[in-house]
Amino acid sequence: xxxxxxxxxxxxxxxxxxxxxxxxxxxxxxxxxxxxxxxxxxxxxxxxxxxxxxxxxxxxxxxxxxxxxxxxxxxxxxxxxxxxxxxxxxxxxxxxxxxxxxxxxxxxxxxxxxxxxxxxxxxxxxxxxxxxxxxxxxxxxxxxxxxxxxxxxxxxxxxxxxxxxxxxxxxxxxxxxxxxxxxxxxxxxxxxxxxxxxxxxxxxxxxxxxxxxxxxxxxxxxxxxxxxxxxxxxxxxxxxxxxxxxxxxxxxxxxxxxxxxxxxxxxxxxxxxxxxxxxxxxxxxxxxxxxxxxxxxxxxxxxxxxxxxxxxxxxxxxxxxxxxxxxxxxxxxxxxxxxxxxxxxxxxxxxxxxxxxxxxxxxxxxxxxxxxxxx
Length: 375
Ligand SMILES: [Zn+2]
Prior knowledge:
The radius of gyration is 23 Å and the shape is globular. Helix 7 (163-174) links the parallel strand 3 (151-156) and strand 4 (180-186). Strands 2-3-4-1-5 form a 5-stranded parallel sheet, with helices on both faces. The chain starts with 9 loop residues before the first helix and ends in a 5-residue tail after the last helix. It folds into 3 domains: 3-206, Rossmann fold, CATH 3.40.50; 209-247; 249-370, Zinc Finger, Delta Prime, domain 3, CATH 1.20.272. It is built from 17 helices and 5 strands. It is α/β, with parallel strands linked by helices and 375 residues long. It binds zinc ion.
């Protein structure tokens, strides 16, 4: 990954380049920002730039052996660290999952976390970085670099360090080796252990704006200008979301169907059917349910806005628009806040491992009570 392969972010590239050029690199760097941005790609380009033996025009050359090894995440002086799941018969360090991770990064350069869960074969997993990984990193850093002048650590999602793992890592963050650069890439730096976070130099990477996302989507091919614009608006700056929307929108269609079913059956007070709906939704697994409730919240907001008849404010796809034409009138200033709260609480409860069927059914009951009824 070269800097030139990454769309935009010229200011961040300039900062990273300057650090390496001046050879005054921080021992620990935290590249942070919301999920669905080019953070990890920038971190990769930085590490490749550090190792490249033939830098030119402010970028790595892309062709020297160091670049080739870096590009495929195979450089022996770059230690890659990321969250994994504990599974019987398999270790729990990053090295145990490295081939899968390399594939993942190749396919998803913007690091779609949901896709990583899918690759771990468990959409309900809560992958973590375990203490055994910290021990492995400490061992690796203690050894002299093999090819490059510098050793680099590329850590994805330090917020997923188990507490004992983070405490163990403190040692190398506090008393770093002078030839080692630790680059952490965080979606949620507030969850990083403060003792680690406070010892890092930080670079904030913002999400792309709508125009930039539209550009990226269009450069990837077969999307009409209208669709690219709608996808850019719907994705709210999350490039992974935009790419998901761009690929077959099966999930989205499923969520819309579940949302319609909930609203229709709640309106008709079909309690038995709603119990079934609760089970069907629970069967999707934890992460998809959380996404579904996010989707519900978005649909509610959009339908509330729909009533204001300000076209430019609605971010609905064609199918959603068709449903909303009849549905929006049931969402008013008398119920919208409570409904949003119900969805948001459900998402939080499911994230906290609550009983999904009960939580979903509880939401259904609240929708029955809150939905505006025709007189
Ligand atoms: Zn090179």
